[in-house]
Amino acid sequence: MEKAIFIIKKGFNLFLEILFPSKCLSCHLRGIVLCDDCVNKLHLTERETASNVISLYDYRDPIVKESIWKLKYHKTPYIGQRFGQLLYKELIEEVSSLQIFSQGFPILVVPVPISHDKKKNRGYNQSEIIARSFCYSAEKSIFQLKNKTIVKKSNTIPQAKLTNRTRRLQNIKGAFELSVGASVKGKTIIIIDDVTTTGGTMLEMMKVLKKNGAKKVVGFAVAH
C-alpha cells in the first residue's frame, strides 16, 4: 500500500515536472534538480563524523547548502527525492555490508523525526522524503521504511541555532523514544538525516534503538 502511494505521488510529481520543469540548482539545466555533471562536482565531506555515522557531502559546498536550505524551507520535496537516490547510489557498498548483519531480513530505515509543529509548517519531514527515496532506489525490497518507529517526545531548540557542541549534545539528550508497539529487537537499522553536525541527534536515536534490542544501527546523512 505504501509503495503504491509512493508511485502515485511520483506520477503526480512527473506531471508537475511536465508543466513546470525543474532546473539544476547549479547549471540550470532543465528537467532535473541536480544533474549528474554537477553532482560529480559536489565536494564530498572529509570531516570526521560521529561513530557509526556516515555523511556524503560537505555542507560548506554552496550548492549542497542551498539545496538543503530549499528542501527544508521552500517546500521543494523533489530535492529530497534526488538526495535519497544519491545517498543509495554512493553508499551501496555500505548497504551491502549491512545486508550481512540482516541475514536476509529487510534492513529497517528510520528517518530522523521532527516535531509536529515543524512538520505542519513545512508540510513534510525532509528526512522522511530522503529516506523514502533511498528505500525505493534499491532494485530489490531490501529495506523497510519505518517512519514511526522513533518519536520525538519533546520539542528542542533547533540544532542549527546552537553553535556550541556541548549545548547541541545537551539539547538533544533524551529527546527520543521508541513508539508504542514498535519492535526493533535483532534488527539492522539505518537512520537517515539531511545534515549531521555533532552527530548528537543520531547518537541519541542509536541509544534508544540499541537499548530496545537492535542488532546493528548506523546513520546515513546527506551532508556534514
TrEMBL record:
Classify the source by domain of life: Bacteria
Cross-referenced Pfam families:
Pribosyltran
What residue stretches are annotated with the Phosphoribosyltransferase domain?
165-223
Regarding protein family, the annotation reads: Belongs to the ComF/GntX family.
The protein's name in its UniProt record: Phosphoribosyltransferase domain-containing protein
Organism, by scientific name, is Candidatus Nomurabacteria bacterium GW2011_GWE1_35_16
